[in-house]
Amino acid sequence: VSTQSTGGTSVCDVVISVPAYWGDAERRAMLDAAKIAGLNPLRLLNSTTATALQYGIYRTNELPEAEADAINVLFVEHGYAHTTATVVQFSKGRLRVLATESDASFGSRNVDELLLEHFADEFVQKYKIDVRTNAKAKQRVLSAVERTKKVISSTPEAPLSVDCVMNDIDVRGMINRAQFQQLVDTASLPTRLLAPVDAALTRAGIERPHSVEISGSGLRLTQLQAALASRLGELSKTTNAEESVARGCALQCAMLSPVFRVREFAVVDMVQDAVRIVWKAADAEEGTTPTTTDVFPPLNTIPSSKLVTFPRATDYSVTASLSESGAVLGEFRIEAGDKPTEELVEPAKIKLRVRMDGHALFQVESAEVVETYMVEERVAKKAKKEEEKKEEE
């Protein structure tokens, strides 16, 4: 990435936006890709968190001073491939993510697929061809229905036409608003949109936010907007999905870089899924149940560090995973080393320090053996005589 062609300097430090539902593997792959490209990723920032940062920093004077009077804003992002709802708490100079819920398989492409099926069935009757059996024809119709979708959102009816789509046949079709609304309702798209919204509000422990910010190409549909408005009240459309995310990342990058001076605005993000570790001693008897500890509960803020104490100094196998999905984040072997040669006051222990960093990645920072000895201190004779002399004086 470079701006040298426009008279600028090469880009080094970056903050990269990622979907909130991305897991450990996707985030590590993004960091590796950035490093291969010669970039220094300062932080991976959830896209809705970036939008919230851009939203809050330009409204600093409108935000309450006291955290007890903080306002809650719901950000709903309905893009082409996914839907994310995030509840963010704002106070002056600070934002705190309260909850995030996503549907990684629901976006505006679902509407495209509905229109594709509608017109494909129509073409079978009218032209005796099935575009779903030809990959190229299917893709051309998909491109056409995307344009039709934008038109039908604002007009009573919308046409579709593709020349030489298949077997040298030109196809034409038409859909009206009533047919389109029936397709959307039959597929329960409004219900799917509200599912992550309700889950985020429930997780955050609030019934209705102070305001609702919507963004994303999928929310151009009036039916989906109406479903949100009936559930949450008035909707605000002051944020642009692409611009707000880019601005939020740029602001966060400037805050983390020592080169720039920007207005202070704290960003407190959270882990979406709880992280647990399962550990078992290497010398444990066969059939012994491993010990499970939730080190980072749901909604735990990041970055954050925790200290886990193992009851005795021996070798351990440790597995870190997500509590809900069970996805493994890493497997580690902790070795206690040589046994102590002197007598201990209490059994030796192992202390393991784990961390969720700013990228929302799990790390084992350190492991150390703690041994407690009884040490007898001896006072030199000369020092003892000097003390006695001072007492006599």
Count of helical regions: 9
Tell me roughly what share of residues is in helical segments. Answer: 25-40%
**Termini separation:** 79 Å
Percent of residues in beta strands = 25-35%
Helix/strand order: EHEHEEEHHEEHHEHHEEEEEEEEEH
Count of DSSP strands? 17
Supply Rg.
Answer: 29 Å
Q: Sheet with the most strands? A: 6 strands, mixed
Q: Can you tell me the residue ranges where pLDDT is under 50 for at least 5 consecutive residues?
A: none
| pLDDT averaged over residues | 85
How would you describe this structure in keywords?
393 residues; alpha+beta; 9 helices; elongated
Account of the 3D structure:
By secondary structure, the protein is an alpha+beta fold. Helix content is 32%, strand content 33%. It has a 6-stranded mixed beta sheet with strand order 8-3-4-5-9-12. Helix 3 crosses helix 4. It is elongated and about 115 Å long. The N and C termini lie far apart (79 Å).
Question: What is this entry, summarized?
Answer:
By secondary structure, the chain is α+β, with helices and mostly antiparallel strands. The protein has 9 helices and 17 strands.
Question: Any chance you could write out the topology, listing elements then pairs?
Answer:
Layout: E1 13-18, H1 24-36, E2 40-46, H2 47-57, E3 71-78, E4 83-91, E5 94-103, H3 109-127, H4 135-152, E6 157-166, E7 169-176, H5 177-186, H6 189-204, E8 211-215, H7 222-232, H8 241-256, E9 266-270, E10 275-281, E11 291-296, E12 301-302, E13 304-310, E14 316-322, E15 328-334, E16 344-356, E17 362-373, H9 381-392
Parallel strand pairs: 1-2, 3-8, 5-9
Antiparallel strand pairs: 3-4, 4-5, 6-7, 9-12, 10-11, 10-14, 13-16, 14-15, 16-17
